[in-house]
Write a structure and sequence with these properties.
CATH topology of the largest domain: Carbamate kinase
Subcellular location: Mitochondrion matrix
Domain Aspartate/glutamate/uridylate kinase: 32-290
Strand order of the largest sheet: 5-6-4-3-7-9-10-8
Pfam family, one: Aldedh
CATH class of the largest domain: Alpha Beta
Helix content: 25-40%
Number of strands: 26
Pathway: Amino-acid biosynthesis; L-proline biosynthesis; L-glutamate 5-semialdehyde from L-glutamate: step 2/2; Amino-acid biosynthesis; L-proline biosynthesis; L-glutamate 5-semialdehyde from L-glutamate: step 1/2
Protein name: Delta-1-pyrroline-5-carboxylate synthase
Shape: globular
């Protein structure tokens, strides 16, 4: 692995038989031969006079990275006219009479008119300088570049076509990057009606059509067209309802309205789409993307090749179901309909889902068995993840009980008035609970999460997008089907959507227009990746579950081993399992300490010694590598502390603010611990495993949050609600409350409506 700047690259063998274009973005990483078309707006500066050197350098760096991975890169570039215009304008100014400049004065010199420059002359003056710039940039990466200038006639003359083809193949064979441009110094004006006329004919009238023609001639795997817009929109970018089209299919042109051309260049978006479709028909995949945006231009080309959702991808293969964007819109609309139902109706849906979990038990377990067999055969899951993947009759029964709890407790969750204020006479304000909107829940190896989260979303009136791991595909499919069957009794089937497309998690985290909250359920690495990838969308959850049990000097012998055994051994893969056991120093070499160690050995728990604990032992267990370790298995760390204060400090330094426990009979010590430990859940003489929505009486949870905003700890229905303000007036205006106005503020608190009891 080598790395230039912040873009790593790996030299890899690439091979692909050219024929059909790629069906999915995820396949683009297999592209070997790639054409990058740089539009005039990408290469030139905003004043259209000179080149955007920083942007160009970034593009050259990305092309070099891909070239050094073993790919064959070609560039179709604009910019000769702009570069030549800059040179000629400078030359004209210098050629003015020195005497005239001196007699005119500096101010008049600035106002001297510069004649309109003919484009062919600009191209002639700029082409050599543009190529020299490319050569200098590619030399920094030990790559050679070669210039090729073409016209439309070169493609219509069979001998010239063969010569061009042979030249390009020879350059690619020698690991040279060909830089191709239309020979604008001699090219004739484009014919008015010459256009794309089928697979075998394309008029090269701009660099879009040149890139498409070249891509097909050279049997290229991928054509990347960089412009000054994010991609293809269903209406002109900037208009109110314009939406970026993620995937464009042949035949979709009728649904698109094209706007004006870019500020520079021969073609517009319509020309790009026609050229892209022609190339696609010839077997080359195409992506149109923004090459000018400062936040993404530094990695736009490598992102496209890695299969990330950038720009518009042209594909001939339409997916069987809706796109994830369509699913997001369906979830939004379905969620709003769900929120408008009566509480009793939402509860009926959840009761129905609970019944289906037990009625369809055999089908669910059969699907889960397929997932388990596939995971075991492939050997890709660790034992803790296999345990999470497994469903059983008892698990389904517990799920059904939890869902009925949710249904019973959700009667007045949405639309509940939590504050009433009389602002003034006949002007009353209410704060009421409302759904957050659309939730994206990403989970791995835990299919039981799907009905739990679905029930909580239904109870809180939220639309829901679910993205499960491939390892639980069969289980998730049948559980989602049951959720939709339950939703259908009140016509809100679309409110819960299961994302089955090849959507990468990172791409889902960018859908800030469709998703209001992301809730990850899985490994600490998954949570960290999602927190890093989320663009403008809040993430609720915790990255680690480093839970502590502190055994105080006044701990009960009977309680200690029971609590530690349950916290560590009952379900070691859970995020609320014990990971670090803190022992008061005075308990070392006592019968209580010996009982703890004996119990852990019987339960086959591997012990890691903390630094202080290791210093007390002649022959100690393996010393812990880090005190911030979540083992997720039958392993734990033991460390020694001198006091409850030191235990609190250790938890704050090495913990994850998840769940922490004290075992003691001293009430004063316990209260100190409860008040001073800054975690989402803090317990006294109780197992860490109680940190759970079902055990808290919430019915279920969407996860455990360690954040300090909105919701903390096990998150049930209340954590999936926000509020809105309702103001009811009668011709009230703010000016009536001014110093000389006729009205006065009252700001009286009003009693809340009586809550229903279950």
């Amino acid at each position: 692995i080598r790395c230039w700047s912040n873009i790593p690259f790996i030299t890899m063998p690439l091979s692909r038989t050219h024929g059909k274009s790629f069906a999915h973005r995820s396949e683009l990483k297999h592209a070997k031969r790639i054409v990058v078309k740089l539009g005039s707006a990408v290469v030139t500066r905003g004043d259209e006079c000179g080149l955007a050197l920083g942007r160009l350098a970034s593009i050259v760096e990305q092309v070099s990275v891909l070239q050094n991975q073993g790919r064959e890169m070609m560039i179709v570039t604009s910019g000769a006219v702009a570069f030549g215009k800059q040179r000629l304008r400078h030359e004209i100014l210098l050629s003015q009479s020195v005497r005239q400049a001196l007699h005119s004065g500096q101010s008049q010199l600035k106002d001297m008119a510069i004649p309109v420059l003919e484009a062919r002359a600009c191209a002639a003056a700029g082409q050599s300088g543009l190529m020299a710039l490319y050569e200098a940039m590619f030399t920094q990466y030990s790559i050679c570049a070669a210039q090729i200038l073409v016209t439309n006639l070169d493609f219509h003359d069979e001998q010239k076509r063969r010569n061009l083809n042979g030249t390009l193949h020879e350059l690619l064979r020698m690991n040279i990057v060909p830089i191709i441009n239309t020979n604008d110094a001699v090219v004739p004006p484009p014919e008015p009606n010459s256009d794309l006329q089928g697979v075998n004919v394309i008029s090269v009238k701009d660099n879009d059509s040149l890139a498409a023609r070249l891509a097909v001639e050279m049997k290229t795997d991928l054509l990347i067209v960089l412009s000054d817009v994010e991609g293809l929109f269903d209406s002109p970018p900037g208009s109110d309802d314009a939406k970026l089209i993620d995937i464009f299919y042949p035949g979709d042109q009728q649904s698109v309205t094209f706007g004006t051309k870019s500020r520079v260049g021969m073609g517009g978006m319509e020309a790009k789409v026609k050229a892209a479709l022609w190339a696609l028909q010839g077997g080359t995949s195409v992506v149109i993307a923004n090459g000018t945006h400062p936040k993404i231009s530094g990695h736009v080309i490598t992102d496209i090749v890695e299969g990330k959702k950038v720009g518009t991808f042209f594909s001939e293969v339409k997916p069987a179901g809706p796109t994830v964007e369509q699913q997001g819109e369906m979830a939004r609309a379905g969620g709003r309909t769900l929120a408008a139902l009566q509480p009793k109706q939402r509860a009926e849906i959840i009761y129905r889902l609970a019944d289906l979990l037990t009625d369809q038990r055999e089908e669910i377990l059969l699907a889960n068995k397929k997932d388990l067999e596939e995971a075991e055969n492939k050997g890709r899951l660790a034992l803790p993840l296999l345990k999470r993947l497994s469903l059983s009759t008892s698990k389904l029964n517990s799920l059904a009980i939890g869902l009925r709890q949710i249904a019973a407790s959700s009667q007045d969750s949405v639309g509940r008035v939590i504050r009433r204020t009389r602002i003034a006479k006949d002007l009353d304000l209410e704060q009421v609970t409302v759904p957050i909107g659309v939730l994206l829940v990403i989970f791995e190896s835990r299919p039981d999460c799907l009905p739990q989260v679905s029930a909580l979303a239904i109870a809180s009136g939220n639309g829901l997008l679910l993205k499960g791991g491939k390892e639980a595909a069969h289980s998730n499919q049948i559980l989602h089907h049951l959720a939709q069957e339950a939703l259908s009794i009140h016509g809100v089937k679309d409110a819960v959507q299961l994302v089955n497309t090849r959507e990468e998690v990172e791409d889902l985290c960018r859908l800030d227009k469709l998703i209001d909250l992301i809730i990850p359920r899985g490994s600490s690495q998954l949570v960290r990746n999602i927190q890093k990838a989320a663009k403008g969308i809040p993430v609720m959850g915790h990255s680690e579950g480093i839970c502590h049990v502190y055994v105080d000097t006044d701990a009960s012998v009977e309680k200690v081993t029971r609590i530690i055994r349950d916290s560590k051994c009952e379900y070691p893969a859970a995020c609320n399992a014990l990971e670090t056991l803190l022992i008061h120093r005075d308990l070392l070499r006592t019968p209580l300490f010996d009982q703890i160690i004996d119990m852990l050995r019987v339960e086959q728990v591997k012990i890691h010694a903390g630094p202080k604990f290791a210093s007390y032992l002649t022959f100690s267990p393996s010393e812990v590598k880090s005190l911030r370790t979540e083992y997720g298995d039958l392993e734990c760390c033991i460390e020694v502390v001198d006091s409850v204060q030191e235990a609190v400090e250790h938890i704050h330094k090495y913990g994850s603010s998840h769940t922490d426990v004290i075992v003691t009979e001293n009430e004063k010590t316990a209260e100190f611990f409860l008040q001073h430990v800054d975690s989402a859940c803090v317990f006294w003489n109780a197992s860490t495993r109680f940190s759970d929505g079902y055990r808290f009486g919430l019915g279920a949870e969407v996860g455990i949050s360690t954040s300090r905003i909105h919701a903390r700890g096990p998150v049930g229905i209340e954590g999936l609600l926000t509020t809105k303000w309702l103001l009811r007036g009668d011709n009230h205006i703010v000016s009536d409350f001014s110093e000389h106005g006729s009205m006065k503020y009252l700001h009286e608190s009003l009693p809340l409506p009586q809550r229903s009891t279950n």
